[in-house]
Specification:
Shape: globular
Largest sheet: 7 strands, mixed
Order of helices and strands: HHEHEHEHEHEEHEHHHHEHEEHHEEHE
Helix content: 25-40%
Number of strands: 13
Strand content: 5-15%
Distance between the termini: 57 Å
Structural class: alpha/beta
Number of helices: 15
Radius of gyration: 23 Å
């Protein structure tokens, strides 16, 4: 498979050109990789008006994913904002006010999109905790009938690696003529399993993938995917919608990595992925035999419920980091490890040795608090842009949330702007170490 963006950048660099254009390093900076960092000069195409090498590269990606695919150099955040714009415009084109039924574990970029686009949200809590929203097709249909949304928005896989039955959920959405959007930020690789678990293949109308999370792509590289039917309707406006939220200076280094990844995905990636999954499965089995509790879910995440082993996730993470092994995420209850085909066999051996050398202790019986349904008194836009002040969480009871600063990962809000802060919300925030919250004045 050709890599037109990479080929252009290399060709330009080899000319030793006089660069009377941005960027300021002129390809000769001190970092060593500036030579391929360009701007939209003649022949370099434009990401949001692609007619040349970028268009060709996106078409290559589309052939690999089996659906219309568009590049983002601003991660899934830009793709989520664009997805929400499409959902809103689609509803308006049908004479409806946009209302999205969303899993409560939505990434904060979805909340910010709601503030910017001013659409209504009804929340799905599911039978789950703060980080997950395990919703069945039966539950979803009940909520659709009760709430009459114009679209459904779910996170799959979630941060702990849980997978939803997207095929059944998509079937329900189609039955009720409701669009289904999936935040698949952690699941770009799902397309390349022996049997694809990618949301578009399972019936979703649109989804985003953070390519950099699970594929050999630089941080910030992501995809926006549309089903053929949805793309037919909105193809001419997708890039226009992306421009609403995007920098006018997209990174050519990130685009080059998306371009170069196409060749890898077309050639060696499936075999490498299959081999890596065998390593992961073997490690999971060893850890279970050693006494660890491993959550089932997507094949490329190792999520350990650490309290059964006598430790918090934070404690296990610190022990791993003492071995120079750095996890993706950890909190009081879990530690999440995200390998990829570019981890070596030796990496898995080091991880196994370090975890198995940790002495098992008496199980910790405390559990995370349940996040209860909240009362909404303002919409997200009104609350987020209202005059606000920061207060201690312990003094926030009964006040209206304006915003909550949470770490990324996982970037999931325990209380949403516009909701009244309840005792349940305070308990959850304290449990996860959130000490202050902004409230509406």
């Amino acid at each position: 498979m050709k890599t037109p963006i990479v080929s252009f950048l290399k060709s330009y660099q080899e000319k030793s050109p006089v660069r009377m254009h941005m960027p300021g390093h002129k390809g000769a900076g001190i970092l060593g990789f500036e030579g391929m960092d360009l701007t939209e000069i003649h022949g370099a195409d434009e990401l949001f008006a692609a007619e040349g090498i970028i268009k060709e590269s996106e078409q290559n990606a589309s052939s690999l994913f089996g659906c219309p695919t568009y590049y983002s150099t601003q991660g899934s955040t830009l793709c989520i904002q664009t997805m929400c714009t499409i959902l809103c415009q689609d509803a308006k084109s049908k004479g409806k006010k946009p209302k999205i039924l969303a899993g409560r574990n939505a990434h904060r970029s979805f909340i910010h999109a709601a503030a910017l686009l001013d659409f209504d949200i009804e929340w799905l809590y599911g039978n789950s905790d703060y980080l997950s929203c395990k919703v069945s097709a039966k539950d979803l249909e009940k909520e659709i009938i009760e709430n009459h949304p114009t679209a459904v928005y779910l996170t799959n896989p979630d941060y702990l690696g849980n997978l939803l039955d997207i095929k059944s959920l998509a079937s329900v959405c189609k039955k009720h003529n409701v669009l289904l959007a999936i935040d698949n930020a952690h699941g770009a690789y799902l397309r390349f399993l022996e049997s694809s678990l990618h949301p578009i293949d399972l019936g979703a109308d649109l989804c985003c993938d953070s390519a950099h999370k699970t594929l050999p792509v630089l941080t910030g590289g992501a995809y926006l995917h549309l089903s053929d039917s949805l793309n037919k309707e909105w193809k001419s406006q997708v890039k226009h919608f992306m421009e609403y939220f995007s920098s006018t200076s997209p990174s050519y280094l990130i685009m080059a990595s998306l371009d170069a990844a196409n060749e890898v995905l077309d050639d060696t990636f499936r075999k490498s992925l299959s081999e890596c999954i065998r390593y992961v499965d073997s490690l999971k089995n060893t850890l279970v035999q050693h006494g660890y509790t491993i959550l089932s879910g997507e094949p490329m995440k190792i999520t350990i419920s650490t309290k059964d082993y006598g430790y918090t996730g934070n404690e296990i993470a610190n022990l791993l980091m003492d071995c120079d092994i750095y996890p993706e995420f950890y909190d009081s209850d879990y530690i999440v490890l995200m390998p990829s085909p570019y981890n070596t066999k030796e990496d898995f051996i080091r991880l196994e040795i370090c975890l198995c050398e940790i002495e098992r202790k008496k199980a910790i019986l405390t559990s995370f608090p349940k996040l209860e349904c909240a009362q909404k008194v303002m919409n997200v836009r009104q609350a987020l842009f209202a005059p606000s002040m920061k207060v201690d969480v312990s003094k926030s009871l009964g006040q209206i949330c304006s915003s909550v600063i949470v770490s990324c990962p996982p970037a999931i809000l325990p209380v949403i702007p516009g909701e009244i802060i309840s005792e349940s919300a305070i308990e959850v925030m304290k449990y996860y170490g959130i000490e202050s919250v902004r409230v509406v004045k």
